[in-house]
């Protein structure tokens, strides 16, 4: 078996997990650089306590690399550009590889033009959006990232899921304070949470999912029978049309500006669902942005202003029974610091998947 | 009395209302051009069935122009720029005047650099965000607009209102289909709706407002006793942290990138609330964006793609009991077409306000 450094009971060394991930991906034909990029994104998700976008995804990535549904030797290509914008064709590469390159293009554009905006087509599932937005931070830039996804979410008044959980991430640098990193999906609840309740045989509260006819439902199994997740805002009364608007804007930026597939045509991000025929675009779409702080005002003014903003919000009186007001990104940053020290806890299912991949690909000791 | 052309019972000619508005604003020292710009924004809100941002605002605008809290002869000034970005100091002018100019700068920048992004400080309440975003449409550009506002909304876990209802508008051109125009606040409910229930002595549903201690409340009068509106998403369980993230990002873009006041320091947009002292920034902040379609891909491909997107979403099977799935902007566009024909219905209170303003400023017949 592959030698993982075990910190404690079921806690694994992030560096060992990264090496394992790189070794597995290289066996699928990825270059060392692309494998490392992908591993870094997946391990970042684990460290930031977002395991739904971490190593759990590796088996599907590898399945699709091995059956040719994802191109292991993709060479993304710039197909269009202006001083502050660029369109990238991902050549059907692995999402993290394409997304990482796209965000670097956005940063390069911003360096020259003040801001940089990159639309991406022909890509695939890219993991956590926040990872790419945060790439802007060391450059004293604000980073943005969004992408569309499989149609699980029903627009307001729709019986069917037509849009994805379409996440948005925005990373903003500060001075003395840690950066603000907002990273959230535009649906009322995550698919993973619905599935977990389903597995546990627990009902789901009202206002999260609907039946195939668009009626309210409290059955988390409804997604397997044509049901859909509601947009952020839950019902029309509580503003679901606003969550629908956000998901729509993210779909348009990610797919229409790039030439990727939109809404109901977005390809599945898991290997067991078949690809559809006659798609209107190419692959999955992303959209990235970078804005140089000093393209708007002196950086020191902005950074001290952000410190003031963060201290003011963090210092707000908490609601009765709550400990404190959080700044976007606080929970993930705290998890990252903690997990880097204690190691990453892997679920039994993920460990079994990793072992099976090692056996299948003949990975024993890449260190 | 001022002669308004009356179409039917209480329905007023939009052109007459515009002339009235221009006449009143000119009496306060505005140039004809700036008065017309402001009138157009307010009348657009009336036509689009958003009367909370229409002529109802004129009395406060005029009160603040007359007592010097808003600068009638403002000369906005570009204080910083890069090829794709610009920072504008609004010179404490009327919001619609400053915002209109800012969006023109964004469009100019986009023409040259592919995209244009304008941060604005020292401005005031600007009416409906969608108006400015839509200015990009005739140029085959996507338009964006956001602004911060008085702190009525409590971040997740906060006892106090710390952020505004911070709206976001995005306008996207299409080919044969009408454009998609998303224009929404990032709070669970509009302040105006809470006030209306309060006036009617009706309770408000759960999950819209909270008490001054951050406890759940169904009393719409709670806002007058230190209560706050909840973010889009309502409670933490339903994703209020996502609405809080959005409001936070909009506050940072509008205030921190421009040097305006953020969160709890945003000046009141009504004349009867006093200005605070020792503010960290200048006035209210806005943020505008324009992206040229053909900076990403050939415009005809995008426009036909948007037509396909709109037809697909509009053609989705409606939920049981619902008539159809709407495209963002459909209700406002339909209202505009209808009201342009039938005239604008004014509430008794607004008519009385207009009459009082005419009497006060000596406006009798500007036509």
Task: Characterize the biggest β-sheet of chain A.
Answer: 7 strands, mixed
Overall number of strands of chain A: 13
CATH-defined fold name of the largest domain in chain A:
Ribosomal Protein S8, Chain: A, domain 1
Helix fraction of chain A, binned, reads 25-40%
On the 0-100 scale, what is the average pLDDT of chain A? 95
Major beta sheet, strand line-up of chain A: 3-4-5-12-6-7-8
The CATH class of the largest domain in chain A is: Alpha Beta
**Termini separation of chain A:** 13 Å
State the CATH superfamily name of the largest domain in chain A.
Malate/L-lactate/L-sulpholactate dehydrogenase, NADPH binding domain
Structural class of chain A: alpha+beta
- Going by CATH, the architecture of the largest domain in chain A would be 2-Layer Sandwich
Main interface by residue count: A-B, 92 and 92 residues
Oligomer: homodimer
Share in β-strands of chain A: 15-25%
Low-confidence spans of chain A: none
Number of domains of chain A: 2
Report Rg of chain A: 21 Å
- Order of helices and strands of chain A, N to C? EEHHHEEHEHEEEHEEEHEHHEH
Number of helical segments with 4 or more residues of chain A: 10
- From the spread of the alpha carbons, the general shape of chain A counts as globular
Description:
The structure is a homodimer of 367-residue chains. Chain A is an alpha+beta fold and 367 residues long. The first copy, chain A, folds into two domains: 90 residues, Hypothetical Oxidoreductase Yiak, Chain: A, domain 1 (Orthogonal Bundle), CATH 1.10.1530.10; 178 residues, Ribosomal Protein S8, Chain: A, domain 1, CATH 3.30.1370.60. Chain A is 37% helix and 16% strand. Chain A has ten helices and 13 strands. Chain A has a seven-stranded mixed β-sheet with strand order 3-4-5-12-6-7-8. In chain A, strands 1-2-13 form a three-stranded antiparallel β-sheet. In chain A, helix 1 packs antiparallel against helix 2 and helix 2 packs across helix 4. The longest helix of chain A has 19 residues. Chain A starts with 5 loop residues before the first strand and ends in a 6-residue tail after the last helix. The mean pLDDT of chain A is 95. Chains A and B meet through strand 3, strand 5, strand 7, strand 8 and helix 7 of A and strand 3, strand 5, strand 7, strand 8 and helix 7 of B.
């Amino acid at each position: 078996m592959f030698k993982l450094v075990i910190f404690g009971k079921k806690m694994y060394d992030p560096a060992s997990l990264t090496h394992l991930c790189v070794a597995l991906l290289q066996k699928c034909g990825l270059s060392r650089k692309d494998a490392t990029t992908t591993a870094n994104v997946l391990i970042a998700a684990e460290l930031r306590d977002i395991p739904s976008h971490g190593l759990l995804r590796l088996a599907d990535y590898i399945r699709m690399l091995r059956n040719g549904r994802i191109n292991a030797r993709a060479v993304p290509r710039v197909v269009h550009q202006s001083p502050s914008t660029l369109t990238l064709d991902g050549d059907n590469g692995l999402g993290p590889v394409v997304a990482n390159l796209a965000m670097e293009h956005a940063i390069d554009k911003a360096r020259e033009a003040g801001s940089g905006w990159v639309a991406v087509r022909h890509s695939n599932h890219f993991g956590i959006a926040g990872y790419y937005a945060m790439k802007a931070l060391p450059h004293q830039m604000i980073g943005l990232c969004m992408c569309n996804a499989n149609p699980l979410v029903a627009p307001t008044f729709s019986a069917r899921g037509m849009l994805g959980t379409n996440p948005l991430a925005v990373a903003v640098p500060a001075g003395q304070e840690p950066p603000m990193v907002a990273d959230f999906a535009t649906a009322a609840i995550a698919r993973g949470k619905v599935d977990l309740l389903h597995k546990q045989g627990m009902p789901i509260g009202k206002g999260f999912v609907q039946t195939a006819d668009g009626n309210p439902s409290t059955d988390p199994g409804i997604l397997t029978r044509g049901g859909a997740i509601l947009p952020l805002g839950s019902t029309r009364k509580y503003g679901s049309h606003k969550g629908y608007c956000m998901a729509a804007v993210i779909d348009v930026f990610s797919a229409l500006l790039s030439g990727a597939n939109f809404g109901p045509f977005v390809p599945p991000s898991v290997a067991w669902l078949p690809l559809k025929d006659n798609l209107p675009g190419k692959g999955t779409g992303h959209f990235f942005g970078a804005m140089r702080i000093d393209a708007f005002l002196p950086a020191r003014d902005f950074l001290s202003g952000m410190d003031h903003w963060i201290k003011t919000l963090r210092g707000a009186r908490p609601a009765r029974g709550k400990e404190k007001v959080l700044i976007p990104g606080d929970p993930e940053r705290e998890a990252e610091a903690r997990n880097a020290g204690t190691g990453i806890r892997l679920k039994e299912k993920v460990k079994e998947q990793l072992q099976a991949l090692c056996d299948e690909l003949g990975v024993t000791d890449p260190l």
